Amino acid sequence: MAAPVLRTRGLSKRFGLVHALAEVDFTLEKGEIHALLGVNGAGKSTFIKILSGLIQRDSGDIELDGARVDFHSPRAAIDHGIAAVQQHPELVADLTGYENIYLGREGRGRGFLSRIDHAELRRRGDALLARFPVDIDLSRPVGSLSAVEREIVAVLQALSRDGIKVMILDEPTSTLTEVEKDVLFRMMGALKASGISILYITHRLEEVIEIADRFTVFRSGRRITTMESADIRSKRLSLAELMLGETIDHIFPPKPADRPSGPIALSVRRLRRPGAFDGIDFEVRHGEIVGIFGLVGSGLDELSKALFGVDRAESGSILIDGREVSPRSPREALKDGIFLVPGDRRTEGLTLTQSSVFNVKLADLDRASGLFGLLRRRRNRRRARELAEVVALTPPNLDRPVSSFSGGNQQKIVIAKGLFTEAKVYIFVEPTVGVDIGARSKLYALMRSLAEQAAVIVMSTDCDEVHGLADRSFALYKGRQIAPPAGTMSRNDLLTAGIMGRLQ
Amino acid sequence: MTSFRILSPALLRCLGVVAMIAAIIAVFTALEPRYASYGNLSAVTRHMAANGLAALGLTFVVVVRRFDLSFPGIASLAAVTIGFLIASGYGLWFAIAAGLAIGIPVGLLNGFAIGYLRLPDIVVTIGSGSIAAGLAFLYTGGQSIFQNFITSGLLDLNDTRFFRINVSAYFLLAAYCLAGLVLHRSRFGVALYATGENPVAAHFSGIRVRACVMAAFGLSAATSVLAVLLLIAESGAANTNHGATLLMPAYAGVYLGAALLGGASIPATFAGTLVITILLDGFSLLGLPYYYSDGMVSGILLFGVVVFDPRVRRQLRRLAASVLPIAPNSEFRS
């Protein structure tokens, strides 16, 4: 085989204490489709972000066609022939496919006022599209296109620059249907035939077998292995074995020996929201942590929002302590005793510019105020101080703006905010995103102690987190609940259920 | 810099404002000795009362991060309503109640359109303000109303003094104390700040975000009616132009105050309006035409925002850093 088009040697990147990427040696051959596999946080995203110039490496080399290169921006990566399509491509919804493809490079004229030659755009766009065995209408506004059509527009946009040698696709199939996926794969096949190498992230092993020539597995920032896709069948490799590696049990608090036998706090019956989830059926007891594992697009986020009243479920019921509730807003859900620790804490959980005293009382102003709606300032402050102690906020400063705390401590403030409401059910979504490993074990211990006085649900795209923390767990796959008959699942089974949609 | 550490940043900002006011008074007194006279200071307190009330309601709207351009129009409509009723022989309190009863619903309607229907705030309030001002003009045909004003007791709002200070100043102080209690010591204030700074997190915390927006516009309308009442009392006649004179001082007061004290709040609005009022008064005493004085006040407003707004300063530091090779001190983070 000829020299590889792209090679990295000893590529490393640290975020604070976390080694996001450690000493990665990697080669990409000319004209191959190469899949990147790994659980969340394995380092795949960091790797492709460095290759596409979005972030800078700490050490190591990148070689392109045998020459060392340096990218200080996505622009520089593109100039060298590496184009990336993000997981959710940034397209302008109101502009047509043609206009999006050539956005910012519409005309030959100079300056703002040069006329856009629409016929010329159309000609160039059609010529580009004609290279591929796919058929889409580029004259429609991008906002009216389907998910796969938008993905193709984004790929065409990346390709419209000259001299692209490497195309990076970040989880392009996660939101696509089977039919749409075939369209994308045809496009990828045509790219490969034209000599372009494709590096793409996926969670699905059957896709690797179907489309990729080789694949590389990442785990905790390291490249674990690179193999031919044909080896998956011949060597009977299991995805779980490849992706999970050793258990990291020590960061999780011990689970109680006997099964929690408290009264049922929350039960969910045949909950359904078309397009998001269907037939969700489970219950959580007081003193118990129930875990739900699912990939991005599995309906996890939608389910948490339905339970919290942000978006209503179409049918089914939610019962708290045996009483039916149907929260139509977070306000009603809070009154029913449900508290959501949202996945996106910076936009959904906290008022960043304000202090922790301000934030902690926010979800229960009834409790925080007395006569004429005047705040019970001394009492609120004392309570905030107590809760800051409970969650071990560091530094225990109540007046600093929340934005000046680390991710883990911001999450502790959200938990303190929940404790202030004295809710009965706590729903955690992606509780440790943006939290470093040392703070993670403290958060897990906190969630376990929270379960002593309430019911806890943990929803995460991190299989280990769900399995390590929860007393019982199940998976969500494309909106369907994949639950074991016995209530407990091994780590491998949980991962398979969430990624493949079936029990082994 | 070390010597400043003993003072908290908040105290430092307050001292800055006091120094600024003292400097302005010193300059004007040097240029025009009448500036420090009792007569002028009395005029300052009266203008301060009107400007301060309009800015007070606007503060609530700014806290929820919206714009209200309708309050001058609402104030004009309320002014001619009050004038018309007094001229028709109704009592003063009835007329004031009627002014509020016509102004507040317009504000609430704004708030409904912006909070619940999610229409753009600037368009909605320009529209409703223009309609209100237009109605006021239809009412009067552009004429001033002054019949019965002397006998109605309206002028007493301007003329009555306790301990040589105008009654409107006491009125203003009471309104600010009440507003401060609401915005800084009550659950409603917490909800308003949360709504303004992160509406999504506020909604997720069970706060009625849309109702907060609506209430803020209602309050803005209410205080603009009270502000224009003082203007009528001072001029002795109600006309359609009264409302428009509130727009610039109110906005300048709220934003200058927010820049000076590091965020929109009741004390900030008070400080900002005070600075703007003594400036405007000084310029008019010097006989400067309004197009000069407005320009100078706006210049000072821009200066204040640039000097005191941390975001603007950070941007300037970034610009400086790209020009100068020395890295600026990084922000304190844990």
What is the topology, as strand order, of the major beta sheet of chain A? 6-7-8-3-9-10
Number of domains of chain B: 1
CATH architecture of the largest domain in chain A: 3-Layer(aba) Sandwich
CATH class term of chain B:
Mainly Alpha
Radius of gyration of CA atoms of chain B, rounded to a whole number: 21 Å
> Strand-residue fraction of chain B?
under 5%
pLDDT < 50 runs, ≥5 residues of chain A: none
CATH class of the largest domain in chain A: Alpha Beta
Distance between the termini of chain B: 22 Å
Instruction: For the record, give the distance between the C-alpha atoms at the N and C termini of chain A, rounded to a whole number.
Output: 39 Å
- What percentage of residues of chain A falls in helices of 4 or more residues? 25-40%
Structural class of chain B: mainly alpha
What is the radius of gyration of chain A? 25 Å
What is the architecture of chain B at the second tier of CATH? Orthogonal Bundle
User: Helicity level of chain B, as a percent range?
Assistant: over 70%
Could you say how many structural domains of chain A there are in total? 2
- The counted number of beta strands of chain B is 2
* Biggest sheet features of chain A: 6 strands, mixed
Description:
The complex is a heterodimer of chains A (504) and B (334). By secondary structure, chain A is α/β, with parallel strands linked by helices. Chain A folds into 2 domains: 6-244, P-loop containing nucleotide triphosphate hydrolases (Rossmann fold), CATH 3.40.50; 249-500, Rossmann fold, CATH 3.40.50.300. Chain A contains 19 helices and 20 strands. Chain A is globular and about 70 Å long. Chain B is an all-alpha fold. Chain B has one domain (2-323): Orthogonal Bundle (ABC transporter involved in vitamin B12 uptake, BtuC). Chain B has 15 helices and 2 strands. In chain B, a hairpin with a 2-residue loop joins β1 and β2 (165-166).
